[in-house]
Amino acid sequence: MLGATWAGTSLVTLLGPPGRPSASLAVFELCVVPLMVLLFLAALPGKPLLGVLLLIGAGRFTLTGIHQAGAGPGVETAAGWVGVLLAAFALYGGFALLLEDTTQRTVLPLGRRGRARTSLQGDLGHQLEQAEREAGVRRQL
Prior knowledge:
Layout: H1 2-15, H2 23-43, H3 48-68, H4 73-103, H5 114-121, H6 124-128
């Protein structure tokens, strides 16, 4: 979803008149915000790092959409600073996951909870105990 959103934003920016706000881009970006908030709410219980990343992204799209709707340069500046925060947070998360993958253990805190934490810290039995109730697993063919 985020990749498609960034691609759409890039396309409108590339094809539109330079330096001018776009009402269609404002509507597009503001329509993405509720989806990101829903994903934030879904991710928060088990993977709060991902949830907070989505919430910061929603804030960025909100500010950018408001700017594209005609708000002043102060909103554009705020959107830029939220973008810097989003980039820093994403870099931390990516680096933490890379270290975790290469060392096979958690090095930097990611804040996993519930089943997300058990999948890494528990044994194979913990990982498989809910498998029979997962979507797509049938009792019989």
